[in-house]
């Protein structure tokens, strides 16, 4: 049957249906809007596109797993689609993870690519799950091996209903899988699927409009769960994709207002209602929301990805992961995190694809997060724009700077006018007249 899966499982590009200063206290005791759910220990994972690992060596897998584990992540969700080479890549990942006993993996079936109309489809998927359900590197959650999806809410697998179809994949063993998929369903519908052990609303990671992100979308799903179902929240730092034919994906989601930081603060505040968090993504270069290194196989995204390393987001993410798991924001080394787009949203470029859809949802700012161990100032500049913001308390602080002209960014933590931490990333610049549209983010962090 694995041979059948090899024919069953093509590389795909998953399509998501998709204040100038704020103070975060050093120690927090989040207030809950509703009673805690009966979930296991807090788990934070990252979505990994196996499609982009075709040429991975064992050393590549170890590099990614080691970096993810050291950043506080607990597991990779291995997104697999339709392609005969996927099983070999999955096996390589599980083998590499054996060297990191505290880091786990689980399968996330990409149902925009995998067929699901017959019992043979169900058998092929079940066989892959069965191969790894007791593997030392498999993530176990609430008594069973965790399995997820991207999509799949319309899959019947030859049965009378979606519920029966997925049960034929996930629940034929004892104990069955802990099934927490990313179904694109109405928030109140989760409780109606007995096969679901939880829900992962993919689009919870971004504001799907020209507004700041809020926890309201999550709360709709949480209120629709049965008491035995878990909630997996999405978090993402960015979204920009710029494909022409045949994908025709040229749009952004709003990444403003310190999206990664703001979203994680919401999840920390509401941590007692959330069992798991999934970072979108580790390596989806095509949609510009990767936090891992740029290596492996890019899906034709080099034009807007090369030169835009996002790994500086990882230590910031690590800070928030600790707070999510413990409920306490940790003390840490003083650091500055900075990100910005390379050109104005209203710029005119000679680009055959044209300006991306939703471009007007974003504003021209440099976004900065700083970790302070004492009161101090955050000094920002980029060309003619300059701003100093004073903070009277330590902890995580935010500031932003409008971008108005060609410039290179500068950020510093100062006390009494003396810089104590400086960030001058030479590889980052803002240009008023770009050659092509690129709404990806430059990201940098001080040492």
UniProtKB/TrEMBL annotation:
Protein name, as recorded: Glycoside hydrolase family 71 protein
CDD domains, sorted: GH71 (cd11577)
Keyword Lipoprotein assigned: no
InterPro entries named among the record's database cross-references: Glyco_hydro_71
Taxonomic superkingdom: Eukaryota
Pfam families in the cross-refs: Glyco_hydro_71 (PF03659)
Annotated keywords: Signal
GO MF terms held by the record: glucan endo-1,3-alpha-glucosidase activity
Signal peptide: 1-20
């Amino acid at each position: 049957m694995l041979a059948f899966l090899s024919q069953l499982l093509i590389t795909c590009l998953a399509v998501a249906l998709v204040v100038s200063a704020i103070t975060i206290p050093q120690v927090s005791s989040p207030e809950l809007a509703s009673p805690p759910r009966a979930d296991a220990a807090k788990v934070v994972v990252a979505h990994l596109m196996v499609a982009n690992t075709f040429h991975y060596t064992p050393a590549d897998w170890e590099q990614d797993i080691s970096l993810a584990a050291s950043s506080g992540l607990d597991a990779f969700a291995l997104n697999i689609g339709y392609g005969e080479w996927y099983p070999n890549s999955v096996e390589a990942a599980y083998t590499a993870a054996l060297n990191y006993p505290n880091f786990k993996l689980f399968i996330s079936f990409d149902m925009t690519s995998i067929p699901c109309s017959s019992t043979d489809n169900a058998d092929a998927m079940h066989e892959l799950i069965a191969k790894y359900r007791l593997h030392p590197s498999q993530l176990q959650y609430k008594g069973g091996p965790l399995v997820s999806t991207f999509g799949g809410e319309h899959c019947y697998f030859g049965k009378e209903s979606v519920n029966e179809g997925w049960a034929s994949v996930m629940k034929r063993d004892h104990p069955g899988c802990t099934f927490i998929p990313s179904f694109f369903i109405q928030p109140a519908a989760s409780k109606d699927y007995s096969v679901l052990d939880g829900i992962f609303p993919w689009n919870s990671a971004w504001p799907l409009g020209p507004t700041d992100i809020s926890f309201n979308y999550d709360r709709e799903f949480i209120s629709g769960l049965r008491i035995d179902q878990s909630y997996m929240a999405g978090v993402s730092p960015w979204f920009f994709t710029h494909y022409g034919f045949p994908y025709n994906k040229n749009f952004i989601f709003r990444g403003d207002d310190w999206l990664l930081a703001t979203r994680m603060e919401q999840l920390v505040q509401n941590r007692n209602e959330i069992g798991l968090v999934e970072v979108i993504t580790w390596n989806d270069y095509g949609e510009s929301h990767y936090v891992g290194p740029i290596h492996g196989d890019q899906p034709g995204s080099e034009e807007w990805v090369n030169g835009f390393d996002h790994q500086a987001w990882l230590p910031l993410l690590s800070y928030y992961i600790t707070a999510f798991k413990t409920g306490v924001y940790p003390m840490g080394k003083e650091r500055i995190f900075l990100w910005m787009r390379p050109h104005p949203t209203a710029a005119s470029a000679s680009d055959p694809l044209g300006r991306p859809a939703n471009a007007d949802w974003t504003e021209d700012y440099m976004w900065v997060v700083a970790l302070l161990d004492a009161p101090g100032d955050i000094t920002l500049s980029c060309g003619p724009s300059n701003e100093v913001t004073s903070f009277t308390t330590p902890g995580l602080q935010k500031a932003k700077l409008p971008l108005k002209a060609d410039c290179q960014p500068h950020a510093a933590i100062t006390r009494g006018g003396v810089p104590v931490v400086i960030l001058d990333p030479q590889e980052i610049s803002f240009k008023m007249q770009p050659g092509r549209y690129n709404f990806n983010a430059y990201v940098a962090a001080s040492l």
